[in-house]
Structure formats: C-alpha cells, structure tokens
Amino acid sequence: MPFRNHLAILLLLLACGQGRTGEIPKTLAYYAQPNPYFNAHAEDVAKIHDGFFFVIGSWDEGVASFLGVGDQPPQKPEWRDQARENLSNLRKAGATESLLAVSFSDSAEWPSAPTLLSEDHRLKFEKHFASIGKSAKELGFAGVSIDVEYPYPRYDLTHSIYNYEGYIAEDLLAAAARQGKTAMAALLDQFPEAVIFLLPGDLWGRPIERAFYFAMLEEMAERDAPGGLHLGYERAYCLLDPVAQVAIPRVGDFVADRLLSGKMLEYWKRRCTVAPGVWPVHMVETGGKDYPKRPWPEELAELREQMRILRSVAKRYIWSFSGQPLWFEWSPEIEKEFGLSKPSYPGIEEVAPGWHSILRDRTVTADPASLKLIEAVREYDHGKLARGELCDRFGTPGEWLVLGPLGNPYLNPAFSAPNAPLGDIRPDLPLHGRDGVVRWFKFEGTEPTGSVRMNALFEWRATDKASAHLVTWVEADEEQAGVLNVGWDDGIVVRIGEQTVFDRAKYPERGHGLLFRDRYDFEEQAPVVIPKGKTRVSVTSINSHGSWGFNLRFTDEKGHPLEGLRFTASP
After folding, report:
1. Do residues 479 and 532 touch, judged by C-beta distance below 8 A?
2. What's the CATH number of domain 390-568, 2.40.50, 2.30.29, 3.30.310, 2.60.120?
3. Is 225 helix (H, G, I), strand (E, B) or coil?
4. Which of 17, 28, 299, 569 is the most exposed place for a label (fewest CB within 10 A)?
5. How does pLDDT run across 19-70, given as a tens digit for each residue?
C-alpha cells in the first residue's frame, strides 16, 4: 500500500478515534470498592479511567448483603451510600461508565440439576436480578457486569454432577435458557437502558453457560435494549503480538456470525461489541512461573503499543484488570488520609506512573503494518470483506475440513486414521474414529487471530485422549517463502502438500499448554515455501487431556502476514 494511504488512515484515526460513535473507546478498570479517594480525587481519576467495575460478589449472597432483595433491606447499607457518593463525583468529573459487577460463585449450588430444573430457583433469579437492575439505576451506574466464569466445570453436560435420572441434556439447556431470559428481563424491567458486560467474554462457551447467556442476549434483542451486550474478552490479557491484538476485538463478531441468526444477529451487529481486557501487571500477578521477566520499561513500552492498537480497533470499550488498585499513585500521605495501602507488586514505583501515562496517552497506533490490518478490519465491518477473506489478510485459514474425533495415536493408534489427511477427502465416506464412524465435515474458523479451539469445535464433549485431522487449501499467485508460526496443545503435525514442515506429535507425559510461557500464542516458527497455485495444508492435532487447540499463521520474517494468500476448504 502506498505510504500516502497509510498516512491518510493514520490521520483519520488520530482525528476521530475508532469507537463506533467516532470516539476513542472508553477505558474501565476492574475492580473498585467505594472509597473516599474517589470523592476527593475524582478529576484526577477521570483523566485515566472512564469508569470502574464496583464489585459486590455473587448474584445471590452479594446482592442480599449489599443491595437487598425485595422487601429485605441490605445487610450492609453503607456500601450503597458510599457508592452513590462516589458515582456522583466521578460523573461530574467525566467518568460516566461505571458498572455494578456481580459474579457466579464456583462453590454455590447453581448450576446443578436441582437448581436448573427448579421453578423456585428461576424466581430467585427474577428477584435478585430485579434488585441488581433497580439498584444500578438508582445509584447512577451506567450498567451491570455479569461474570459467569467460575462454575465453568459444571457448565459441561458430561460433568459427574449430572446423573440424567428423570431428565435429559436438552432439559438442562432449556432450563438454563429460561433462567437466563428471566434474569435479563428482570434486570431490564428496572433498568431498560443498562449497558451489559459479560465476563468472560466468549460466545463459544460450554453448553449450559452458553444456553444461559444466549437467552440473556435473546431477551435484549427482543427489546432492542439500547445499552448493548459487551463481551469482556480476556484473551487480550496477554500482550501476545501486534497482529493478534488487531484481530482480538473482532473475534466475537466472527463467532456471532456462526452461532446467531435472525433478530439476535441483527441486534448483535448494531448494539454489541467485544471489549478487550488488558492486564497491566500480568508479569507479576498472573502466577505463571514461566512468564518472561523483563525490565518494567520494556514491559510498559509493549503495553503502550498494545493499548494504542486496541484503541484503534475496539468499538466501544477497553477494560483493565488488577487484583490490587492501580488507579492511584501511593504515598504515605495518601495511605494516611484515605487508608489505601501500597500495592505489593515488585516495581510498583515504576508500574503505577507508567500505566497512568499509558492511560492518559489516548492515542492510537501509528505502526504501518498494524494500520494495514486495521484497514482490513474496517472493510470487514462495512461488509466489503467476508470472514474468510479477513482471515486471509491475517495469514490464517478461515475454514477447514475436519475429521474427528479420532483415536490418540499414542493410546489408540488403530483408530487414529493416520493416512487420511493425505488421501482422497470424501465427506460421504465413513472412516473409523475413536468412538465409531466419523466423516469429514466443514468447520469455519472463528478467529482471525489464527486460533483453532478444538474444544469448541467438538462442543466440549469427550475431547480427552483424542486427535483430529484438519485440511484446507492455500492458493498463491506466485511462489512465496515465508514463516509458519505455530502453537499447540498437546501435539501437532503440519504438512504443506505431502511435505511435513513441522512435527511436534510427541508431547510430554503431562501434556503441553496451548499458551506458551503464559503469554505467547505462537511458540515456534519454521521456514516454509508456499507453491504457486493451490496446495493442500493439513494439520494433525493431538490432545492428551483438558484444553485442546492450536494456533497457526503464515507470515514474513518480521511477523507480518504473508500477502496474497487465499485459503479455502474446497479443493
């Protein structure tokens, strides 16, 4: 692309930002509790944040404690009074986007067959979410954040808690949907214009979870709720690489195109967004022992560019997470006056002012390579590029033919179909897989990031001790030398034509995590040559247990996606 075109794009971004209203996306911080600092320093706080997640804990016990339910007053009424005062001062200073945040506990009864199939529990959702909506509106919140993450093992239909005595899987899914619809209806009856955040922000969750929040989305679509549903997407917690950062704010749109239809899809496209989440102290707070330790100036420089990229492509919101407050710079005087202790992060003296500088920056990326991809994202937004074509621009296949689940070649080689990826591919031909007959089927990729999540592909069912073959075709007008970027869990083999270009089929006894060093999607690179014309690309993905997937992208030596490649699942 000529430089003048890059310059034009840059000037446009700098002039008007990238939110859907022509503004820089709003930046929220997770999390906060009511405190006197917000009253005294609201103007300082508003220079770095547009709002906060005010957390009250679980949707059942937390609501009863801090908000009250029905005629029952809150057990801690002072929380409401302090929050009201904080929000009033923050709004006057310009920080208008704060959210009342509730979560689902991993140790609570829900979800289980008795709670899902219980009419009393559905009515409990109605009462508690009515209180959430009413309190959020009365106190001056912009909306509500709902974190459904923590009971995630029990969102799986095969969890041992479900014995299927007197009910079937469809009963559980229908019950979860009724409760999700009830909860959202009760909330919106009290607060029709509420902004709704959903954590973790992944439309392709486990079945019970998905039934619950799809029903919430359906209720919002039926009302055309103006606040919209915004996915608090946690994949951006890791700095990853610039190409992935450009792609992340559109992952939800790709999945929505796959899983939604009719009024829900139309509502999604008009009102809903992905809100990428940033973890500014990931290096010291994640708990990942392998995260690369670096000088803070290097980490902060990369974090600054991450935020500039996300500001360029996020539609409405960006949010940040920290387990300890990073919205003030500690001093003995501050601690004495407001009772705010010094965060315990190593290097906090550098981190807090550095992070605040990044937040005050509010500029967008000027990197030409990122701008080129941002232009492609804009074309996709305006219907000028299909999902697969956008994946092409990011150097990753947008669709695959898949065969599986197959036997794990180390545990059940007899049914691993090792010759299938290089043979004739006939969707009508039965082949013998791990649990019975399998056939090739088409799977449209859901992420321009280059990630293929096999758990989602096989609906989280029986993915331990398994393998699968995936095939696509790459077409190039001229022969191109490039780099194959790969990440995997637990084993992988990649072929171009009949040549094996990457082989990590053998994996450690305890498996191999998909996210390398708690940060990178792509662990290794291999030189490759893409022939002129159309060439088969095949991947054999092998899983030991737990999470399953791989990441794949074709780039030049600088990590920029190879240009002119076109991928298709049709030979």
Report:
1. yes
2. 2.60.120
3. coil
4. 17
5. 444 589 999 999 999 999 999 999 999 999 999 999 999 999 999 999 999 9
